[in-house]
Design brief:
alpha/beta; 8-stranded mixed sheet; 3-stranded antiparallel sheet; 11 strands; 29% helix; globular
Length: 335
């Protein structure tokens, strides 16, 4: 493995508002790339339009800012055309799930080997504060002055519904976990979605306040680890248990509940029922927010299958180049 530092992947001077979650995420991405040891010339970072979509300007790799909502389409094409390329798609919640929603679900369904970074601040920041597909019902914004009358997309639910095999979530200010999640996404072969929860300090500050700092995460988040008990709290005093078809938070050692009752996280389970329940937990409903790799299931990838199909067809053909193709048809000489 090559040895690199975060500096090897840095480029330009980021132009985001002071305190924007994009700054935190960019630093984690640089560090993750360095720890993975992928040469910069073997990486492509592709984005759409939005504040977060300026990120390709700040990485010393191949990079491309495309048009609004089309990042997944361009990233898919780049990966299929060059399967050895490590492709990172960077999109905001509006770019990925509104105008880009169709491309998002089909990238999941096809299981193309790209790493989709969904920077979710629940607002359109670049266009100055309109509600987005992830804004909660009743959210007041410039485009919904009396509150939205729509229910939001929940990225995990959309990903799972489109047959997504990898979903992870982290908070932009939590660098160690963000780096770990990005590395896990790279190791997964197939479409990997990483939801990065962040605040827009100008138009939607404090939207993730419950888990945006260490103290909040100790109380209101649970770090899920494959093969480990689902415990959380400042002293791991709480656990997640199954209650019929639902999940339930219990205090370990009280009301008859012991550590043996607490569920063990299985990120590799083909059936996504419990994984989705974990991903959908909300502080407002009395649950901790699940952080870490929630789903990681192996499946055939689109790009690998395409090249395997090409090779299979080539073996069955009588011709293997253009000259041989010409000779398979009727020929005649003109004298």
């Amino acid at each position: 493995m090559n040895t690199y530092t975060a500096q090897d992947y840095k480029k330009g001077q980021p132009r985001w508002c002071p305190g924007c979650g994009d700054h935190f995420f960019l630093a984690s991405l640089h560090k993750a790339m360095a720890e993975l040891g992928i040469p910069p010339h073997q990486i492509a970072v592709i984005s759409g339009i939005g504040c977060s979509s300026r990120l390709p300007y700040y990485v010393n790799t191949y990079a491309m800012q495309t048009i609004h909502g089309r990042a997944a389409a361009i990233a898919s094409g780049a990966k299929i055309a060059n399967p050895d390329l490590c492709v990172w798609q960077v999109s905001g919640d509006g770019d990925a799930l509104a105008i880009g929603g169709n491309h998002f679900i089909h990238a999941m369904r096809r299981n193309i080997d790209i790493n989709v970074i969904l920077l979710n601040n629940r607002i359109y920041g670049l266009t100055k504060g309109q509600y987005s597909p992830t804004s909660p019902r009743g959210f007041v914004s410039k485009s919904s002055p009396y509150g939205t009358v729509e229910d939001p997309f929940r990225p995990a639910e959309l990903c799972f519904g489109a047959r997504g095999r990898f979903f992870a979530r982290t908070v932009a200010t939590d660098a160690p976990e963000t780096i770990a999640v990005l590395k896990a996404a790279y190791q997964h072969k197939g479409a990997a979605v990483c939801e990065i929860m962040q605040n827009c300090v100008i138009f939607n500050d404090h939207t993730h306040d419950a888990i945006y700092n260490k103290e909040g995460r100790k109380k209101n988040a649970i770090y899920v680890r494959h093969g480990e008990k689902l415990v959380f709290g400042e002293n791991n005093e709480y656990g997640i248990v199954q209650d019929g078809f639902n999940l339930k938070v219990v205090e370990i050692g009280k009301n008859g509940y012991t550590i043996d009752d607490v569920l063990v996280h299985d990120a590799h389970c083909e059936d996504n029922t419990l994984q989705l329940k974990l991903a959908m937990m909300q502080v407002e409903e009395g649950f901790p927010v699940a952080l870490g790799v929630i789903r990681d299931v192996k499946a055939p990838t689109y790009d690998t299958a395409i090249y395997a199909q090409i090779e299979e067809v080539k073996q069955k053909k009588k011709y293997h180049n253009f000259e041989e193709l010409l000779e398979t048809n009727d020929t005649w000489e003109v004298k």
